[in-house]
Every structure is written in C-alpha cells, then in structure tokens.
Amino acid sequence: MSDVHPETTGVQTCYRHPDRRAGVRCQRCEKPICPSCMVQASVGFHCPDCARSGKQRVLRARDLVTRPIVTQVLIGINVAVFVLTASQGGGAAGLTTDGFNSLLRKLAVAGPLVAQGDWWRIVTSGFIHFGLLHLGFNMFALWILGSMVEPALGKVRFGMLYFTALLGGSLGALLLEPNTFAGGASGAIFGLMAAAIVGQRAQGWNIWQTGLGAWLVINLLITFTPGSGISIGGHLGGLVAGFICGWLFFILGPRRRDRVLPMVLCGALAAAIVAASLYVAANPLT
C-alpha cells in the first residue's frame, strides 16, 4: 500500500495520523489534527503536544462535568415532574388516552385543548414522561448532549436553544397529530442533537466519526417504526427548530462576530413557533 501525501492529493491529513483526514488546525501551532486528536481548549482546539505543554490551561472532559448547570436543572425538573405525575396513579406508563392520569392530561399537548385556551400545554408537555424507560432514555440523551452543547454555547444561549426546540416539538405534534395527547423531552433533545451536528460541522468535524450522525439516523428509524407510539411530529419539529438555532449560534454568530443577533433571532423564532402553534391548534390540518 502506497503512502498518501497531502501535497499531491490536496487532502489535509492529521500530523499524528497520516491516514486520517484533518478536521481543524491547532489554535496554537496550526498543525492539522483529526477529531481523535482534538483537545478542547478555552478557545478552539489544541493538538495533544500543545495540550501537554501546559503553556495554556486546557479544559478537559473532567473539568466540564460540573459546568452544564442548565442541563442539570432541566434533568432535575423532568425527574421531579415525573415523580409528581407518577404519584397520581392512573397509568403514568400508558401511552393511550385512557392511560393518562388527570395530571398528565392537564400537562400534555393536544390540539383541541390548546385551541380552547390551554396554551401552556405547548410548554408543559416537554416535561412529562410516560414511564421510567421513557424518562431514562431522554434524560441520558439530555445529559450527553447537554454536556456537549452547553459549554460551547453558554447557559443563556443553551437555554434558548432548548426551549425553542421544545416549542418546535409541540408545533410538530400539533401539525401531524393534532388530536393525540403527546409529551416528552424528546423534541427538545432532537433539537440539541441537530444543533450539536451543526456545531461539529462548523468546526470541521466528521459527524460519522464522532457518532452523532449514526445516533441521529438510529433515532429517526425508531421514530418512524410503525406502532412505536412515538410522536413523529414532535421529533421532527424539535429537529428543525434545533437545526435553525444551531445555525444561528454556531455559524451566523461567528461569521458576523455578533453574539446578540443570533439570540434575538432565536427569540423571534420561539415567538413565531408559539404563534404558529396557537394558530394550528385552532385550525388543524387534519
């Protein structure tokens, strides 16, 4: 097997792994590095050599464990709401309308009830879960994605991303399943996944090497599995909203060197989603 030389192929390879395509350059020495060699630093990424030099403090994974405060708070709220709804009895694990206890009925999103004035359902529905497995899978995904995205965006922008994706999930459910009770944090989680993918692509990472691409595909396959009881609209709505917010924060903001404009546009998107949800609830497509 012959060696691959970047100067003849035009493909930039990692200085430590010549058989791997480089995603970005080290912020200090500008050596090309592949995703496995990238070390998160306070600004951008460093190569392993610069990270070991100790000339600048490097943020490692163990340093970030206590940083995603908003993620931890969101997990706490979801768990608390689950405990509260489960304590009511009457089928917290059920997915059918008859299986809902009275509190779940009051918090879940459903088109006819939103149209009657229960506007809060488009928010509260993102914090209820129909069983321990439903909660466990969603909170595990929230922890993984939140620990990845929140340090990159900061608490305020991460919170805006999360709630905009949550609202997008409610809008999607109202569009595609207007007469069904729906709920769960998965719409917001799909939004975090979309934003994380946009962020990795903005940094030059290969989402198939990092695993995010495969994770998204697997979750979409599960979403469209017949008889799964999953809200397709909720997942797709959160995915689209998260993608838009991810583009605003990871691409538009750095490109314009402006942190305020993406936040304003994200807030405007959230307001537009709320307005669209109320309209769709009153004027269902099906």
Helix content: 55-70%
Measured by DSSP, the beta-strand proportion falls in under 5%
Mean pLDDT: 85
Question: How many beta strands in the DSSP annotation?
Answer: 4
Strand order in space, largest sheet: 1-2
Provide a count of the helices.
Answer: 14
What is the string of helix and strand elements?
Answer: HEEEEHHHHHHHHHHHHH
Structural class: mainly alpha
Assembly type of the shown chains? single chain
- N- and C-termini, Cα separation: 60 Å
CA-based shape: elongated
Q: Biggest sheet: strands, sense, closure?
A: 2 strands, antiparallel
Low-confidence stretches: 1-9, 54-66, 90-98
Alpha carbon gyration radius: 21 Å
Can you describe this structure?
By secondary structure, the protein is mainly alpha-helical. The chain contains 14 helices and 4 strands. It has helices at 6-9, 48-53, 61-64, 69-86, 102-107, 111-115, 121-124, 132-153, 155-176, 186-202, 207-210, 212-223, 232-256, 260-282, and strands spanning 24-25, 32-33, 39-40, 45-46. It has a two-stranded antiparallel ribbon. It has a two-stranded antiparallel sheet with strand order 3-4.
